[in-house]
Amino acid sequence: MKINLIDKKVEADLEIVLTNNIKDLEEKEILEQLGFEAKDETSVFLPESKKIFVGYEDEDYESLAIAITQAVKKIKSTKFTTANLELDCECSSKLKAIVEGIYLSSYEFNTYKSKKEAKKKQTINIIVKKVTKKLEDVLSESKTVTKAVNKVRDMVNTPPADFYPKTMADVAKEIAKDVNIKATVHGEKYLLKNKMNSMYSVGKASTNESKLIHLSYTPKNAKKKVVLVGKGLTYDSGGLSLKPADFMVTMKLDKSGGCAVLGTIWAAAKLGLDVEIHAVVGAVENMVAGNAYKPDDVLTAKNGKTIEVRNTDAEGRLVLADCLCYAQDEIKDIDYIFDYATLTGACVVGVGQYTTGVMGNCEELKKTAVKRSHEAGEYATALDFNRFLRKAIKSQIADVCNIANTRYGGAITAGLFLDNFVYEENKNKWLHFDIAGPAFVESEWGYNPHGGTGAAVRMNINLLKNLTK
Ligand code: BES
Ligand code: ZN
Ligand code: ZN
């Protein structure tokens, strides 16, 4: 879907009417007859007048983005090519919600369909009173951010046979090239040489070599230095602690954290944010073979800490442990270090499939992240650490165990495990985002069609943009 931002009404096939009250509409009677109440997630198409009426209840991002999604779906189901949407105010937040709603809901992933429908060229004309520089900037920024989200969706949706650690590294290099930033990729030799035995062990049984990806965006006069670390499990079979068949399906999603980090750095560089950003991704495939790492193994991470493996399906934290150490060893004077991972099913059980769990040692920072997330149209909630859950990951034979001795609080015990690999000086600069719920949807919700959602990208850009404030 194309968007035109204009200030004069032009001829168009259709008209979109966003409404929260049908009382003053000339079509009131027929709309009433049709039972249209102008509520969220409702729409009616009147073919004679060629108008699409879409309901919304609040003027906030979510209501508006979901409302315009209804219109996009309707337009896409027709052969009409243009639609007008008149905005009664010059409000940039409203425009942002609508533009992002349009770009996010018109996403399709058809790469693997043998019969490809010809791509329809459809346009929505957004008509405002005056096309100001501010509104044009909103349009262009939202376009970039949603393009990044859709890039992440493409990566996540690509099947594991076609997207393995090397593919992820190659895509990362392309992303870096596109926005002129530095890319470094290391293989297993490097992992072994640099004592990253925890990450290395997870990928050992795969025929696809693990890759450690590091992109850096270093603008002049950067005000802050931020490291984004992502879990890039291109497939998670569970390893020897094999997942049951039904749970293995969709595990191509387990690279979502890594993909989100790549999408974020691309958008940040494209927007020219004044923040130095490093994206570190552990791209690994968790498989089974004769040389697989085993429950009972003890692994030594890059910081020297020993880990008792009791479940090979708790592999993401093992990869992140070494990636966190790598980031803190290689990148000096970090202001913030954030990690993103589809880490635990427990997080999905705890907060539902739409919400990201935010963990860390600094209350203020957690609060800020949750706020920035909500502002950007993503659900997030803070999950608090406590001393008792910390004890649950103690090991009898090593420094720490990769699973807890209780099934309760699984998202938090996973976060606490990661805390073991955050250096003392960075304890309050670190946040862990468990995106296991929102990263992937089986049945569409809002402006997210089936598949990868690109979760965390919009939140990240909003967070990064405001770090300097
Ligand atoms: N990748 C999974 C977590 C996951 C589950 C993500 C469902 C998205 C949807 C992770 O590696 C995993 O398997 N975690 C285990 C941990 C357990 C063994 C302590 C889990 O959540 O069951
Ligand atoms: Zn797993
Ligand atoms: Zn996993």
Please, could you describe this protein's structure?
The chain is α/β, with parallel strands linked by helices and 469 residues long. Helices cover 36% and strands 21% of the residues. The chain has 15 helices and 19 strands. The protein has helices at 28-33, 61-76, 92-105, 133-157, 165-178, 188-193, 197-203, 245-248, 256-271, 316-330, 345-351, 363-375, 387-391, 410-419, 457-465; strands at 2-6, 14-19, 43-46, 51-55, 82-86, 123-127, 182-186, 211-217, 224-236, 275-286, 298-300, 306-308, 336-341, 355-360, 379-382, 400-401, 430-434, 440-441, 451-452. The strands form 4 sheets. It has an 8-stranded mixed sheet with strand order 7-8-10-9-13-17-14-15, with helices on both faces. The longest helix is centred in the N-terminal third of the chain and has 25 residues, at 133-157. The two termini are 34 Å apart. The structure holds ligand BES and zinc ion (2 copies). Ligand BES binds next to α11. Ligand BES is lined by residues 236, 254, 311, 313-316, 342-346, 348, 403, 410, 436.
